[in-house]
Amino acid sequence: MVIFKKILDFYINSSLHVAFSAFALVSMTQYFFGVQGDLSVAWFAFFGTVVGYNFVKYDAIARLNKTEIKKELKAIVFLSFISFLSCFYFFLQLSWETKLSAVAFFGLTLLYTLPFFPNKQNARNWKGIKIYIVSLTWVGVTVVLPLQEASVAFSFDVILMAIQRFLLVFSLVLVFEIVDVKFDDPHLQTVPQRIGVRLTKKLGYILLFMLLLLEFFYYDNHHFLPLLFKLLVCITIAVFIYFANENRSRYYASFWVESIPILWWLVLVVI
User: Fold this and answer.
1) How far apart are CA 15 and CA 54, in angstroms?
2) Cys-Cys with 152: which of 83, 147, 159, 210 at CB 3.0–4.6 Å?
3) What's phi and psi for 256, nearest 5 deg?
4) Can you give the pLDDT at residue 186?
5) What is the pLDDT of residue 117?
């Protein structure tokens, strides 16, 4: 049991779990727009997520001089290096237009992590901005990149997908912010810190309702299967929001909540 916990902790701490979520969301975008046979963007998103998230997490730990994960840090660094090489390989497979967009979203990740101006904080520490940068980055990687690589024409349906993905990620991040409300720096001004946990949960329900409502605005709106699956995923997220509180274990958000996109994708694969 101890060995299993160590493996699970490494799986989460090394960002492999969140990377599978990114892979799943890219695959879902491709499914809904009928894109088949191109896994370059999905694997680029997977390995790029490992690199990006580990850079964000462990850069912060280094700045705070924390040493709790020192034993597994070398393994995570090695995994991140392999992921960087793999990410670069799949980056080379992308079209030049997609490469430019990928670089732009990578720049957004750097903005989130590194201070670009002397004596200034990084974007992660700007009041209330964290959740928007995270959501926009996920929209870019899991919606813009796969559709751009597949040469899907810019349309109203693409805009709808981007908005829905933003609402989905935003609602998922709300769960993290509720669970971490006691540990987040008050300066961050996360949503629960500003409006309280109860109103944050109501906001999450509203965003999920808006996500479902937008499904009826697609040009081809007689697609029952996508609506059904988005309904199921919204209900699942709503349940996690309802039971979220500051006393939940870290696995509640870091494993179970991040498993929702993976489960959503696996069910479609099985069907």
Assistant:
1) 7
2) 147
3) -70, -45
4) 72
5) 44
Q: What HEC string does 71-100 produce? A: HHHHHHHHHHHHHHHHHHHHHHHCCHHHHH
Longest Cα separation, the chain: 55
Helices (H) and strands (E) in the chain, counts: 13, 0
Q: What's the pLDDT tens digit per position in 91-129?
A: 999 999 999 999 988 877 776 655 444 445 545 555 567
Q: d(Cα 178, Cα 183) in Å, to the nearest integer?
A: 10
Determine the Cα–Cα distance for residues 234 and 98; give it in Å rounded to an integer: 30
Which candidate, 263, 215, 218, 211, places its Cα nearest to that of 238? 211
Position of tokens 């903005």?
111
pLDDT, position 243: 95
| Backbone CA torsion sign across 214, 260, 13, 77 | negative
* Mean pLDDT, range 133-148, rounded to an integer: 93
CB neighbourhood size of 270 (10 A): 6
In the predicted structure, residue 216 carries a pLDDT above the cut 90: no
Among residues 159, 149, 171, which one has the least CA distance to residue 217? 159
Predicted TM-score (pTM) of the model is 0.89
pLDDT for the residue 126: 57
Question: Is 59 within 8 Å of 76 (Cβ atoms)?
Answer: no
CA distance 118 to 172: 33
Structure tokens at 242: 């309802």
Q: Which two tokens stand for residue 26?
A: 């890219």
Q: Please tell me the distance from the alpha carbon of residue 169 to that of residue 264, in angstroms, as a whole number.
A: 14
> 113-141 burial string, b = 16+ CB within 10 Å, else e?
beeeeeeeebbbebeeebbebbbbbbbbb
* Contact call for residues 150 and 31 (beta carbons, < 8 A): no
